[in-house]
Prior knowledge:
Elements: H1 22-32, E1 38-39, E2 45-46, H2 61-69, E3 84-88, H3 92-101, E4 108-112, E5 118-123, E6 129-134, H4 136-140
Amino acid sequence: MDAPEGLKILFIAGFGPIDRDISDSRKLYSHALGIAFKEDDGGYLYTGALQGAKHFALWPLAQAAQSCFGNNIWPDHIPVPQAWLEFEVDSVEEATADLESRGYRMLVRNRLEPWGQTVSRFISPEGLLVGITFTPALREAS
Length: 142
């Protein structure tokens, strides 16, 4: 695909969910995942301490459903995610156990994907498909 003339994307400058209830999101991202945020006067939580995205993709819903449920149809009883977000961790198994102990329900639990990634996935309070991952290919590229 040709890039528009005069436009060159350098990197992903930011990403984050848009919240209806910041308290539920704070429980997940700050308390459960341990991300240290700064907070401005308006309640905007932010950090510049996390490394940038190693992978950006437009993931078809049918493929996300296949990855989570083994078929191409997203179940009606689970909110359809509007985006996906993955956090690389040292141990998917330990992170999964910790998140489950905090009440997060995994859609996929410690699965080894065909491309070598180990992943657990769940739906965040904002409706994002969140992955906790160990991805050897991304670590080798570092």
